[in-house]
Amino acid sequence: MLQIEMTNEFEEALTDEHLALVEKCLQAAAEREEISGEVSLTFVGNERIHELNRDFRGVDRPTDVLSFAMNEQGEDELDIYVDEEDLADFPNMLGDIVISIPKTREQAGDYGHSFERELGFLAVHGFLHLIGYDHMTEADEKEMFSRQEEILQSIGLTR
């Protein structure tokens, strides 16, 4: 099972139904991918996600979702070797997902579906990035987006 910590840093409060939906989406994704661990999810405005996008990705504009994987080694990081038995005592920290609420609303309108559908999509998209999926090539994009659709449809969150 996935442990999820959610924080809302945006001035607009999300409803309990929205938070429950996000949790349902992430649990379905974890179950589908057979992964357990911990995820931190933060809801922000466009200004904050713009800062994060600029500072961590070098892209000077707001975006919809960012993922910061804890189990992924960066370019200049040292290799760390740990005995597998020692890891059994610690939770699997998957990483952080940051979602822009204004971008979620904007894209829901652009794509002609509900805010809830877009919110679920972005949560699952961010989660899949945490566990190693990407969409840099056409084949990778096809695989990732196919998984997203399977997960969303499995909980009845269709377009």
TrEMBL record:
Its cofactor is Zn(2+). It is found in: Cytoplasm. NCBIfam families: rRNA maturation RNase YbeY. Its EC number is 3.1.-.-. The gene is ybeY. Binds 1 zinc ion. GO terms for molecular function: metalloendopeptidase activity; RNA endonuclease activity; zinc ion binding. GO terms for cellular component: cytoplasm. This is Endoribonuclease YbeY. Keywords: Cytoplasm, Endonuclease, Hydrolase, Metal-binding, Nuclease, Ribosome biogenesis, rRNA processing, Zinc. Zn(2+) binds at residues 125, 129, 135. Single strand-specific metallo-endoribonuclease involved in late-stage 70S ribosome quality control and in maturation of the 3' terminus of the 16S rRNA.
